[in-house]
Amino acid sequence: MRFVDVIEKKADGLVLSDEEIQEMIQGYTEGSIPDYQMSSMLMAILQQGMTAQEATTLAMAMMHSGDVVDLSDLPGVKLDKHSTGGVGDTTTLVVAPLVAACGGTVAKMSGRGLGHTGGTLDKLESVPGTCIEQPMDVFKDIVRKTGVAVIGQTGNLVPADKKIYALRDVTGTVRSIPLIASSIMSKKLASGADAIVLDVKTGSGAFMRTKEDAFALAKLMVDIGKLAGRRVSAVVTDMNQPLGLSVGNALEVREAVQLLSGEVSEDDPLFEVNMILGSQMLQMGNLAKDDAEARKMLKEKIADGSGLLKLKEMFKLLGGDDSYIDINKIDELVKVEQVIDVCSKEDGFVTSMEAEKIGTAAQMLGAGRATKEDVVDPAVGLIMQVRCGDQVKKGDVLAKLYVNDTKNLEESTKLIYDAVHITKELGEVEPMFYGIVTPE
After folding, report:
1. DSSP secondary structure of 259-277
2. Which of 163, 187, 231, 310 is catalytic?
3. CA–CA distance from 106 to each of 143, 199, 315, 422, 439 (Å)?
4. How far is CA 236 from the centre of its chain?
5. H helical segments located in 320-354
């Protein structure tokens, strides 16, 4: 096979065969296909798209380029949940232990934060002693003991995706929906779960800026799951404002503890999105017959404290100091040199927010990374005091900044003012939830 012929075939809008895609991934991973040819192929895919079958073959080929996790020796339906990335997105720390408390088996591999989005691993590591790099046998043992474990990716998982993603980053092809879908699904398939719930974000703080693109990505990932023999559903949620009020690592752990302790209102967006995700996970795990039964189970596990207990157990088994996972001690994780109020300069209504700027403000305070080498300060970040639709008066607090290093304080403050749009009249406010895509 001459790879140039395959490039021309895709550039002409034709469908690639399974064999052509598999040989492409093998050749690029091994080095026989050079970067310049793969760059040309990625651009052809960006311009011409891929069918669901092509994207599935691509995801499966990348999955098989390295290690594949086998979870078959764990009990029940192995469940996973993945978010496409957002601001104040604390759902994993809430829904994973809640589903485990309901009898689910949640075995999840997560990533670190980069740019304006937060990473679950950084949140876990804000609890002293927590080790997210665990051998596979220890990972499985934790799941057996408590029903839930969240760790970093282990071994040589999807090396083809890592290599291709680096190339996409410098060739202007990151935004291709088939490439995004196959990248995400290659990692999820390699992680070994039977059923996967995807939280696809859309809006100013998300990778998918429009609802149309978010639903297109959601549908393609669900199709890939079906063709690959996995149960997948995708929930499309809003990221035009932070999901939770807290943005920062320990701050988000505290908000998760507050929710699991019954201190977050049921009409709060973070509570509601966790109910939607948890309900999907319980139904896909054959633990609840419908949404109503699933929600009742999840709320019961908040009320009786068993969801919080699962989170506490998981931290302990990961080596963390689980004494912090307590509503009376969690504040100690977020002690900083100063907490600074950012106050409204005018009367009006919070009509909209730019979540990306809010995430960047937290990152610049030290809560996130601009590059992979940056060191994160687990205690810093911010807590929003307003949501879209709220009425504010001049002097009301818009956000509280948790600060240890004032180097970027002025710029972070400016970003909050730029991000929160206040108008005299209340405009239309976007909902937090847009819909669910299932194989059916």
Report:
1. HHTT-S-TTSHHHHHHHHH
2. 187
3. 7, 16, 14, 41, 21
4. 12
5. none
Q: Can 407 be counted among the known catalytic residues?
A: no
Q: Does residue 82 carry a catalytic annotation?
A: yes
Q: Is the pTM of this model over 0.85?
A: yes
**10 labelled catalytic:** no
Q: What tokens does 193 get?
A: 């779960």
**SS3 call for 104:** coil
Choice among 108, 112, 140, 168 that is catalytic: 168
Q: Which of 80-94, 110-124, 190-204, 311-325 has the lowest mean pLDDT?
A: 110-124
Question: Which amino acid is located at 211 in the chain?
Answer: K
Query: What one-letter code names the amino acid at 203?
Result: G
Check if the beta carbon of residue 71 is closer than 8 Å to that of residue 140.
yes
pLDDT digits (tens, 9 = 90+) for 388-433: 999 999 999 999 999 999 999 999 999 999 999 999 998 888 899 9
Look up 116 and say whether it is catalytic: no
Catalytic residue among 183, 191, 246, 352: 183
List the catalytic residue out of 80, 89, 122, 161: 161
User: Catalytic annotation on 424?
Assistant: no
